[in-house]
Write a structure and sequence with these properties.
- About 40% of the residues lie in helices and about 30% in strands.
- By secondary structure, it is of the alpha/beta class.
- The protein has one domain: Alpha-Beta Barrel (TIM Barrel), CATH 3.20.20.70.
- An eight-stranded parallel barrel has the order 1-4-5-6-7-10-11-12, surrounded by eight helices.
- α4 links the parallel β5 and β6.
Length: about 240
């Protein structure tokens, strides 16, 4: 199982939101590229980067900062946030991004997802972010009016093989990841699922690892690392056991 430390970018800074609320943010670093280097030095093998401005507005906004991260680390990164066209996918891949995350467009434009999967294969993944089991879009500000499980099934039909699942109610709360829902989506969809939202202990990681046989392949950890609740090196060790 893989651990992906999260770097959320808002206004060019590394921040964390609480339950996706843009009015409830805490800035951890003025220079996300320095944070990326620190995470790499601590042993991270892959980084999860989100352009929060892009997610809200509908197109990438923090390209300069993403480029700076890529210039300063050698490990792969995945990027999501406002990516809704083939041209924007091309832009990210040309920058050197390893995997591009599609979120809102997966709900609003399935044809685009199908085309992206056909052209770019495993370079494309989908983010399913849900509140009370219902997908949220546009920076989590609006309801996508579709159940997370239904969207996962649709995505599989589009040719996507990997998704991230975030329980918004737990994101930034350090209340524990929704292991049951993550496992349920993995089992029912047949997709590889990376869990996100609320990871707060090594036990959480062990619980997710127990679901590997169902298709749970990783965990995204943000606030728990920044707050010192979870030690990244210990998390990596548990995930690789």
């Amino acid at each position: 199982m893989i651990i992906l430390p999260a770097i959320d970018i808002l206004g060019g800074k590394c921040v964390r939101l609480t339950q996706g609320d843009y009015d409830k943010k805490f800035t951890y670093s003025m220079y996300p590229e320095d944070t990326a280097v620190e995470l790499q030095d601590a042993g991270a093998h892959f980084l999860h980067v989100v352009d929060l401005d892009g997610a809200k507005i509908g197109h990438p906004m923090n390209i300069f900062t993403i480029r700076k991260i890529l210039e300063n680390v050698t490990i792969p990164i995945e990027v999501g946030g406002g990516i809704r066209s083939m041209e924007e996918i091309d832009l990210m891949l040309d920058l050197g991004v390893e995997r591009v995350m599609i979120g809102t467009a997966a709900v609003e434009n399935p044809k685009f997802v199908r085309e992206a999967a056909a052209q770019f294969g495993e370079k494309i993944a989908v983010s399913i972010d849900a509140r009370d089991g219902v997908v949220a879009v546009n920076g989590w500000g609006d309801s996508g009016e579709i159940a997370a499980e239904e969207l996962a099934a649709r995505i599989g039909d589009c040719g996507i093989t990997t998704i991230t699942y975030t329980d918004i109610a737990r994101d930034g709360m350090l209340t524990g990841v929704n292991v049951e829902m993550v496992a349920k989506i993995a089992e029912k969809s047949g997709l590889s699922v990376i869990a996100s939202g609320g990871v707060n202990s090594l036990d959480n990681i062990r619980q997710l690892k127990e679901k590997e046989h169902l298709g749970v392949i990783g965990a995204i950890i943000g606030k728990a690392i920044y707050e010192g609740v979870v030690d990244l090196q210990e998390a990596l060790k548990v995930a690789s056991e």
